[in-house]
Design goal:
Layout (H helix, E strand, L loop, with lengths): L2 H26 L3 H20 L5 H29 L4 H29 L1
Helix pairs in contact: 1-2, 1-4, 2-3, 3-4
Length: about 120
């Protein structure tokens, strides 16, 4: 997958996280966990953007590794919200699927980049 597609996917995911955060604030009156979700879910794309202007291959890998960690944290918060609030909401299922897809893409890019930097 090209970098532009990843950037677009991460940006759309961040927009979806913002929308879900607003829903949690308004409907569930949940302020703590949803704030954590907002922070980590929007950080994924921000770090991908930073990676585009990395100063070296090592810096690029580092930025994408941070994105991967943020994606993993986001998945945790989504699962916690889903299990603790028992939401009958297809939106969270879609967010979990999108997050998992971002994780898979990031893992692939980080592994490939590490392999290419070793050769």
């Amino acid at each position: 997958m090209g970098d532009n597609n990843l950037r677009k996917k991460a940006y759309q995911f961040a927009l979806s996280i913002v929308d879900f955060y607003k829903l949690m604030q308004n409907e569930q009156r949940e302020f703590v966990i949803s704030k954590q979700l907002l922070r980590s879910g929007t950080s994924i794309g921000a770090n991908i953007e930073e990676a585009q202007y990395a100063q070296s291959r090592k810096d690029f890998i580092h930025k994408l590794s941070i994105s991967l960690k943020e994606a993993s944290e986001t998945k945790y918060w989504l699962r916690l919200i889903n299990d603790s609030y028992q939401l009958d909401n297809i939106k969270i299922v879609q967010l979990l699927q999108d997050c998992e897809e971002l994780i898979c893409i990031l893992v692939s890019i980080v592994k490939k980049s590490k392999f290419n930097s070793d050769t």
